[in-house]
């Protein structure tokens, strides 16, 4: 597979993943761009891996985790503290604000943004990508037990900070389990 | 539930994600800058061209056939024997590609009795537990494909049901909408109102025609308690049953039907030890006229690893598969049969 083929097939999915990780469209674009440049520079090694997609996803996730410690931390932390609606960014005037799509400020989204990087990554991989624990462990390169503890700590932290009123979801019909 | 709130939040956030194609020029420019080479024009046009091709790619189906005895034989399926085909629906909206591990949320055993009187589509709930080879921990059966590929999926479902499979097929559910549109839409009956957490679209009870986009949206939704996987499995079964029925109605000649089904499986890759897919389909085609959909009987159980366990009826269902007496089991357990949709 060439890098161009990989990019054509996987770029959109990686951008979605990056948006869920960073909580911010422009940060996500930066992250994806940087990761893809690095992947292209070492494409021979990436394409020789058993699962190139997994390799690149790992690169992106590691870049996210590392960046949370560095200069980006202040941007993310500032945004979370101000409780900006998701999608707002700090690059200048917002044109065609995508946050209008979300009718109201989403408290859960803001709380997710405050989680430590690895916990947030585990949450995205479980509740957005719908991966099993073993698969999450492969992306994060850790033990399955560690994955479980990230998720359990994240959920506990979210539960603790949310009051009952914020937990309204779409009313789900009383489905049956056959 | 907090898990549901998190899922909803992520799903709604998808609407924020812009078109990734806009990044390609910047990626290439930066790559070029760091490598110092002039490749920009070639990469952009190649990537854009491929984006168009990938968007129109046919349904990805990989069918790997193994003769039931495990011996290497040229493929002659004995005519007078019940046939089991394992179907894994690859769940993600975009195809990851055959090399990439992926979860199969829809696992269906297609069972055709020896008399070819009909086909049974038996849905296996993905939240049932399985022991990961090596024995160290328990995972959802829907992870079996991601962990062990087709062989892993076959082993996991085979261990659960104590049956062997004549073939294993992996279907990219994300490509089904294109087939639906080619058929001019598909008629489905909705019994439970569903609101899409991705698009906000509401599906009201009643029977009506779905477009490819609507089908894709509908089949992604989890419905009901315990992460709603069971409700979603039911919808996928209803859809497959409707799809088979409408394809069959459109083509009344069994040989032509077999050709159409083979065309649908454009990317079929046949295991070198295995059978001839066209021949298999031709042989099973008469059965496609009668489709019975059922779900392996399970019950919610908070003590089970993922909230779901088999009921006492399940072993009898599996035994009926082995002894080719599924028709009798179904008559004795009408509650397991999907009658709506």
Helical coverage of chain A, percent range: 55-70%
- Shape by Cα distribution of chain A: globular
- Low-confidence sequence ranges of chain B: 37-78, 93-101, 265-274
Sheet with the most strands, sense and barrel status of chain B:
6 strands, mixed
Report the portion of residues of chain A in β strands. under 5%
Largest interface: A-B, 66 and 76 residues
Low-confidence stretches of chain A: 72-98, 100-105, 169-178
Structural class category of chain B:
alpha+beta
Protein described:
- The complex is a heterodimer of chains A (178) and B (341).
- Chain A has nine helices and no strands.
- Chain A has helices at residues 3-22, 25-41, 43-48, 52-67, 72-82, 107-114, 117-127, 133-140, 144-161.
- The radius of gyration of chain A is 17 Å and the shape is globular.
- Chain B is of the alpha+beta class.
- In chain B, β13 (298-300) and β14 form a beta hairpin.
- In chain B, α6 runs antiparallel to α7 (229-250), α8 packs across α9 (277-284) and α10 (314-323) runs antiparallel to α11 (326-332).
- The interface between A and B is large, with 66 and 76 residues.
Write the layout of secondary structure elements.
The complex is a heterodimer of chains A (178) and B (341).
Chain A: H1 3-22, H2 25-41, H3 43-48, H4 52-67, H5 72-82, H6 107-114, H7 117-127, H8 133-140, H9 144-161
Chain B: H1 2-13, H2 24-35, H3 40-55, E1 61-65, E2 83-90, E3 104-112, E4 119-124, E5 129-131, E6 138-140, H4 144-161, E7 167-172, H5 176-182, E8 186-190, E9 194-195, E10 202-203, E11 206-210, H6 212-220, H7 229-250, H8 254-264, H9 277-284, E12 291-295, E13 298-300, E14 308-310, H10 314-323, H11 326-332
Parallel strand pairs in B: 2-7, 4-12
Antiparallel strand pairs in B: 1-7, 2-3, 3-4, 5-6, 8-11, 9-10, 13-14
């Amino acid at each position: 597979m060439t890098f161009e083929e990989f990019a054509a097939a996987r770029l959109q999915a990686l951008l979605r993943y990056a948006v869920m990780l960073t909580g911010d469209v422009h940060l996500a674009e930066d992250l994806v761009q940087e990761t893809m440049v690095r992947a292209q520079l070492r494409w021979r090694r990436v394409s020789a891996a058993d699962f190139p997609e997994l390799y690149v996803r790992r690169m992106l996730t590691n870049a996210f985790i590392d960046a949370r410690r560095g200069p980006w931390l202040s941007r993310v932390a500032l945004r979370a503290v101000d409780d900006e609606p998701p999608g707002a960014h700090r690059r200048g005037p917002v044109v065609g604000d995508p946050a209008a799509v979300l009718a109201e400020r989403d408290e859960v989204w803001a709380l997710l943004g405050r989680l430590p990087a690895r916990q947030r990554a585990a949450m995205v991989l479980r509740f957005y990508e719908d991966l099993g624990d073993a698969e999450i462990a492969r992306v994060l390169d850790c033990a399955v037990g560690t994955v479980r503890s990230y998720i359990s700590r994240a959920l506990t932290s979210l539960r603790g900070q949310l009051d009952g009123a914020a937990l309204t979801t779409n009313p789900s019909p009383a489905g049956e389990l056959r | 539930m907090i898990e549901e709130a998190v899922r909803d939040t992520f799903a709604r956030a998808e609407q924020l994600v812009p078109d990734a194609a806009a990044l390609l020029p910047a990626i290439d420019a930066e790559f070029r800058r760091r490598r110092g080479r002039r490749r920009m024009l070639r990469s952009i046009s190649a990537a854009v061209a491929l984006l168009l091709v990938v968007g129109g790619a046919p349904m990805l189906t990989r069918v790997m056939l193994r003769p039931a005895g495990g011996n290497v034989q040229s493929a002659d399926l004995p005519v007078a024997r019940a046939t089991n085909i394992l179907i894994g629906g690859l769940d993600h909206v975009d195809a990851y590609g055959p090399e990439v591990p992926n979860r199969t949320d829809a696992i269906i055993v297609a069972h055709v009795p020896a008399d070819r009187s009909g086909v049974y589509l038996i849905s296996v709930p993905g939240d049932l537990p399985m022991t990961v080879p090596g024995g160290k921990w328990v995972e959802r059966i829907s992870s079996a494909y991601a962990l062990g590929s087709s062989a892993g999926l076959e082993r996991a479902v085979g261990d659960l049901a104590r049956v062997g499979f004549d073939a294993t097929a992996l279907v990219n559910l994300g490509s089904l909408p294109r087939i639906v549109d080619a058929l001019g839409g598909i008629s489905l009956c909705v019994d439970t109102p569903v609101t899409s957490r991705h698009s906000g679209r509401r599906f009201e009870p009643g029977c009506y025609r779905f477009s490819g986009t609507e089908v894709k949206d509908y089949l992604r939704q989890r419905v009901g308690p315990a992460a709603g996987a069971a409700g979603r499995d039911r919808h996928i079964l209803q859809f497959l049953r409707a799809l088979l029925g409408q394809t069959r109605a459109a083509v009344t000649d069994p040989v032509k039907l077999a050709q159409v089904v083979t065309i649908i499986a454009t990317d079929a890759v046949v295991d070198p030890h295995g059978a001839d897919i066209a021949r298999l389909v031709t042989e099973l085609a008469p059965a496609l006229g009668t489709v019975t959909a059922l779900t392996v009987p399970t019950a919610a159980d908070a003590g089970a690893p993922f909230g779901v366990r088999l009921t006492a009826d399940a072993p009898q269902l599996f035994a009926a598969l082995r002894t080719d007496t599924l028709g009798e089991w179904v008559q004795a357990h009408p509650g397991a049969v999907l009658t709506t949709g």
